[in-house]
Amino acid sequence: MASAVENKVKNAKLVLLGDVGTGKSSIVLRFVKGQFVEFQESTIGAAFFSQTLAVNDETVKFEIWDTAGQERYHSLAPMYYRGAAAAIIVYDVTNAATFTRAKKWVQELQAQGNINTVMALAGNKADLVEARQVTAEEAQAYAQENGLFFMETSAKTAINVNDVFYEIAKRFLQAQAQQQQNTNGMILTDRAANRTTSSSSCCS
């Protein structure tokens, strides 16, 4: 019985991208440990975390790479997002420049050509209502145009943080199921083709 449950654990590499100070590390810390640190030190290079999430009768194990936002680490980013099943592109709703930068990350990921990567756009620091520079409507419109799903989050108050990861897990499993269906369809077709070709050359 235990092995049947273990078989349903799916590993998913997930990368967080975005400008320095947008709260990527705070989002991860809130999701993985349920904690918030007011003055979080900037990530150097990248930090690694893992966390499992149950979706219906399946379990997704996220292998999370929290990348540094500083420009000097940009050249390292492809090493972390290459082969990622999912990406969360984070911007700060109180800083319009980070939203512009988020769009560049989206373009960079799209240029990689992996159509199966689940991409989320997260507008963090949604609790700072008075300081807002980017409206939810503007970000939502951009996300829809570019095939991402969008949520505003607050690592400080925990608003929508778990929801973003849950939605990613759900979409990741749907994509996996779709790929499985496609693969099975191809195998069935190949078998049918093999039967027609091999029937004439029996007993050779």
TrEMBL record:
Biological process terms in GO annotation: protein transport
InterPro entries with a match to the protein in the record: P-loop_NTPase, Small_GTP-bd, Small_GTPase
PROSITE patterns: RAB, RAS, RHO
Keyword Transferase found: no
Keywords: GTP-binding, Lipoprotein, Membrane, Nucleotide-binding, Prenylation, Protein transport, Transport
Gene name of this polypeptide: RABF2B
SMART domains reported for this sequence: ARF (SM00177), RAB (SM00175), RAN (SM00176), RAS (SM00173), RHO (SM00174)
Single GO molecular function: GTP binding
Family according to the record: Belongs to the small GTPase superfamily. Rab family.
Membrane topology classification: Lipid-anchor
UniProt name for this protein: Ras-related protein RABF2b
GO cellular component term, pick one: cytoplasm
